[in-house]
Each structure stands twice: as structure tokens, then as C-alpha cells.
């Protein structure tokens, strides 16, 4: 018996390397997600803060953010009495060119959810399956948050435009930011935990200063985390207003995932089993998935490289 | 390929380019630049006193 084979560490590495070729897209996507995560928090490396909006979830006030999250920018511009041409332009352009590719490959919150879903993938918790009609219907929640925030900010924007309102509280500018779990995790908790909890000065007491809103935000975050552990990409599928806005154009994007129906084996469904958002791939148009649940992650391409591929809709 | 798809994404690309140019012409980036600490009073309230001193070391979010 060789020494190589008897070493369990070597075997683990061997197994990992054997799996790697079948996870080529997943590996590329992981590299992309890490790169974008570092880029979006680039202030920590000395990059300049910019105010350009991107179609990903970047909560307002993120301490090291190099860009604005598109949905926060949309709300803020509307709340200042201006139609958000630039933000909508960026969303429509990205959506019509790449679909929801940014959700799958760049968004930090998508990355975080992929991490959370690892617990179910490794068998630590049981994965929860949602029926197809429910999966589709729950998407309305994202639309509700999107249009609700547009109506609220539009209302305050008109008041500011008429001179009836000047200044105002945070929620009148970015209402979704009040409950946004990404904001709670990356901004509220960041400042709360890193800056002060361990170094309270003077008469300040941590418990005295926790207000109702803080509890509401924390509960929303806990629910978000729990659901994302049990159901992969639950926030992306049903709640995310950024994704809901991208979804208006993603169904007809230039780049899409295609399926070669001739190479499909009846009853195989490997692509559907690999899909984190439960898109009914075999029922979709083979010339390009039009379902706006699809985040173009490419897990289906990894699962069945013969039949599934990224392609153009020329 | 369905012609409908092509029309849709081409239309959206043209509309989005028009929107982006209009957005730049209307200086929307300047609006986003106008964010000030006062706009976030409520936020500061519920983070207070943890955010502490502005010279604490980390950049302020605005």
C-alpha cells in the first residue's frame, strides 16, 4: 500500500479535485463573487467612494462601499423629487444584456445566501421544498416592496419639489432601508458591534439605547437568515426589490441559459435539481430561459454540460 | 429565435441608453452626492451611542 493512499488528507484533496471539473461554473462564480465582494467594499483597500448606482444589493451607508446599491439610489433620487432616469437606465441595460447575472455572480447578498445554503447542502439542516405555484406567487412580495417604496418616496419627492418638506428622517429618503436585512447586517450591526458595544463610554448603557426599530430590524434579519438556510436564495426569489426590478427585463436578455432539448433525457431533471431558485427549466423555452426567477448562476450547466449552456439570443 | 425576444431586448437597450444619458444630463449623480448626516438623523439616533466619535477610525457612511 502506498503512503499516498493511506493519508486521509490526500484522499480528501483527491476527491475535491475529482469533483472540481464538474463544478467549473460554480468555481468560476465563487471567484467572481469573492472578487466583487472585495471590489464593492474597496474603500477598505483605499479605493475611492463613488456614487454610481449598480443593480446589486449594497445597503445605504455600508462603511466600505465603493458604489451605491441601485435600489437605494432609486429611492433616494425619487425622494428628492427627481425621476430616476440614470438608475432605471442602468437596471434596464443590465437586465436586457445579462438578465439577472449580477444576482448570481456579483451581488454580496446573493453570495451570503449561497454561503447560508451550504448548511443544507452539507446535510446539517433539512432543505425545505416549495411548490412551483407558491414559488411563483411569493415573488409578489418583492414587487410589493419595490412599488411600495416607489410610492412612498414619490410622495415625499413631490412634497420636497413643492417646497412643503425640507430635510426629513432617514425613512422618508430610503424607506426600504429601515427593514432591509442587508442594511441591518452590514451597516447597523457593523457599527453597533465593531464600533461600540465593547467600548461603551460614560453613562451609556447598551440596553438603554436599544429601541423598537432595532429589534424589528434584528427580527427581520433573523427570519431572513433562517429562511435562507432552509431555502436556497429565498431572499433573491421572493423579497429582493432589486431583483424584482431587474426581473422586468431579465426574461428577454441577450445572454441567457439555453437547453438543447434533443440531448435531454426524459425524467432526468438534473438541471432542475441543481437550480437554487427552483426554475422549472424543462418547461422553459429551450432558446433561452425566460423565467425571471433565473439568476443565471449556471448550476444547471454544471449539472448537465451536454444539454445546458450559456448563449446569446440573437 | 423568436423575433419578439429580439425586439424586446433591443427596445430596452435603446430606452436604457436614453435614460442613462438623460440621467447624466440631469446630474442625478450630484443628487446622490448631496446626502448629508442630517438626512440620516433617525438612523444615527438608533445607532447612538455606539457609532461614537467621528474620529473613531472608520469612515462615516456619508
Main-sheet strand order of chain A equals 1-2
What is the CA-based Rg of chain A, rounded?
A: 22 Å
Overall tally of domains of chain B: 1
> What kind of oligomer do you see?
heterodimer
**Overall mean confidence score, pLDDT of chain A:** 85
- How many whole angstroms does the radius of gyration of chain B measure? 21 Å
Strand runs of chain B, count = 0
Strand content of chain A: under 5%
> Uncertain runs of chain B with pLDDT below 50, 5 residues or more?
37-42, 45-62
Structural class by helix and strand composition of chain B: mainly alpha
Largest contact between protein chains?
Answer: A-B, 65 and 46 residues
**pLDDT averaged over residues of chain B:** 67
Low-confidence stretches of chain A: 202-207
* Structural class designation of chain A: mainly alpha
How far apart are the first and last residues' alpha carbons of chain B, in Å?
47 Å
Number of structural units classed as domains of chain A: 1
Amino acid at each position: 500500500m502506498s503512503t499516498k493512499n493511506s493519508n486521509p488528507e490526500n484522499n480528501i484533496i483527491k476527491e475535491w479535485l475529482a469533483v472540481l471539473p464538474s463544478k467549473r461554473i460554480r468555481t468560476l462564480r465563487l471567484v467572481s463573487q469573492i472578487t466583487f465582494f472585495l471590489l464593492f467594499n474597496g474603500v477598505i483597500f483605499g479605493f475611492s467612494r463613488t456614487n454610481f448606482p449598480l443593480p446589486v444589493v449594497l445597503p445605504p451607508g455600508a462603511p466600505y462601499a465603493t458604489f451605491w446599491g441601485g435600489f437605494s439610489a432609486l429611492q433616494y433620487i425619487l425622494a428628492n423629487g427627481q425621476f430616476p432616469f440614470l438608475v432605471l437606465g442602468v437596471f434596464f441595460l443590465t437586465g436586457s444584456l445579462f438578465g439577472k447575472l449580477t444576482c448570481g455572480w456579483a451581488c454580496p447578498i446573493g453570495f451570503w445566501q449561497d454561503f447560508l445554503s451550504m448548511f443544507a447542502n452539507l446535510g446539517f439542516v433539512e432543505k425545505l421544498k416549495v411548490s412551483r405555484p407558491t414559488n411563483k406567487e411569493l415573488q409578489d412580495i418583492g414587487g410589493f416592496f419595490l412599488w411600495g417604496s416607489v410610492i412612498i418616496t414619490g410622495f415625499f419627492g413631490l412634497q420636497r419639489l413643492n417646497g412643503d418638506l425640507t430635510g426629513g428622517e432617514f425613512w422618508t429618503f430610503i424607506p426600504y432601508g429601515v427593514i432591509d436585512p442587508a442594511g441591518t447586517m452590514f451597516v447597523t450591526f457593523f457599527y453597533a458591534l465593531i464600533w461600540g458595544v465593547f467600548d461603551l463610554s460614560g453613562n451609556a448603557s447598551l440596553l438603554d439605547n436599544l429601541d423598537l426599530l432595532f429589534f424589528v430590524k434584528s427580527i427581520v434579519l433573523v427570519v431572513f437568515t433562517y429562511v435562507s438556510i432552509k431555502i436556497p436564495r429565498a431572499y433573491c426569489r421572493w423579497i429582493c426589490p432589486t431583483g424584482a426590478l431587474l426581473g422586468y427585463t431579465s426574461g428577454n436578455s441577450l445572454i441567457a441559459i439555453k437547453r438543447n432539448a434533443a440531448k435531454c433525457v426524459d425524467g432526468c431533471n438534473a438541471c432542475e435539481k441543481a437550480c437554487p431558485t427552483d426554475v422549472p427549466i424543462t418547461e422553459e423555452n429551450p432558446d433561452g430561459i425566460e423565467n425571471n426567477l433565473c439568476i443565471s448562476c449556471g448550476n444547471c450547466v454544471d449539472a448537465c454540460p451536454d444539454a445546458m449552456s450559456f448563449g446569446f439570443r440573437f | 429565435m423568436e423575433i419578439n425576444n429580439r425586439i424586446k431586448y433591443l427596445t430596452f437597450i435603446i430606452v436604457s441608453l436614453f435614460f442613462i444619458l438623460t440621467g447624466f444630463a440631469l446630474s442625478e449623480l450630484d443628487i446622490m452626492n448631496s446626502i448629508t448626516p442630517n438626512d440620516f438623523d433617525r438612523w444615527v439616533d438608533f445607532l447612538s451611542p455606539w457609532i461614537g466619535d467621528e474620529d473613531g477610525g472608520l469612515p462615516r457612511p456619508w
